[in-house]
TrEMBL record:
Residues 67-360 form the Aminotransferase class V domain. Substrate binds at residue 370. GO terms for biological process: glycine biosynthetic process, by transamination of glyoxylate. SUPFAM superfamilies: PLP-dependent transferases. It holds the Pfam family Aminotran_5. Its cofactor is pyridoxal 5'-phosphate. One of its GO terms (molecular function) is alanine-glyoxylate transaminase activity. This is Aminotransferase class V domain-containing protein. The keyword Transferase applies.
Amino acid sequence: QAPHLLTNFLFPSETKKIMAAASHKKITSFHPPQRVLMGPGPSNINPRVLAAMSLPVIGYLDPAFVEMMDELKSLLRYAFQTDNQLTYPISGPGSVGMESCFVNMVAPGDKVVVCRNGVFGGRMIENVERCKATPVIVEGTWGEPVDPNALEDTLKKNPDARVVAFVHAETSTGCVSDAKALAEVAHRYDCLTIVDAVTSLAGCPLYVKEWELDAVYSASQKCLSCTPGLSPVTYSDRVIDYVTGRKDKVQSWFMDLNLILNYWGNTVRTYHHTAPINGLFALHEALLLLKEEGIENTWARHQRHYQALKAGFEAMGLKFLVKEENRLPQISAIMVPEGINEAEVRSKLLSEFNLEIGAGLGPLAGKVWRFGLMGYTAQSANVMLCLSALGSVLS
Ligand code: PLP
């Protein structure tokens, strides 16, 4: 346990005891326990992806690596169902993908409409504020999709808004919003869209080109079943035109698209930052697996295993937070039955069955469990394990 700075200040003797205990522990190589990851992410990883990650490192400007980067971009275009030229993985988790969209597309003083129906819409608002812009919030209900009519009302009242941001798949509730309808409304009012597809990419239909989404970010560790720490993004030409035409400097050096284009763009390849090379090997393999399975088949697999899980939950008398028509197959929020200690159930599932599930977030903390069936985790054996383990713990 690392002594916290404040603890150190207030209780120096306590800190010394902790440090002494830590210094006596013999540290050996770390071997994580084998878990079945049925929480909100990360999901389990296909052994082929882990094997790719362990290949020897090469330079980030090595011609072989550069060739691999081009394949990676084309595989990502397939995953996002787009032909956007600027489609690449950001070095950093989904939160960096989110932040990159905001710092590039939102300048100080702008007005941005953010739709919030869960935790991650709230994070978008934080991003807008940190860009020194004004968020206008379309407040939704947790567990229900964002209402396109409510977005339209807000845009009517705020004709000076430049950007509309929303979450396609709210991981905190397991609810999907109609990204196509929301983008249509946003474009009618001449706004660019920022879309969070962290949980939706590869887990349920997402058509970036057909739905005309402008900036879409995701993460590697959910339905792509890759190692955590990468954030695939795709930007329409409208976004690139805006960012390259910006008169002020993008607030972040690391995330400034104008600079990153020199590494991930098409023409030149110059040093920007040291790419997470082995992580990118892993992503390449994860995307190849997606291509081999076929994206529609992958979506169908998520749906099939969700149906089996749902049948089991219903047989146990458990209730979903979200109405059936708005549910995401890859993440289910289940109401904790009256009188059950929800944290104890999670802890027993982990210690007795090596099964990780997620807790509720924000106002849903203590009220729901979140069961993920994402990517490689979406398999019959895991559905069976989950239902039998949960049945045993609840009995
Ligand atoms: N957006 C959504 C919808 C998420 O579910 C998450 C993570 O769970 C994030 C953003 C942030 O992603 P990361 O944890 O990879 O930074």
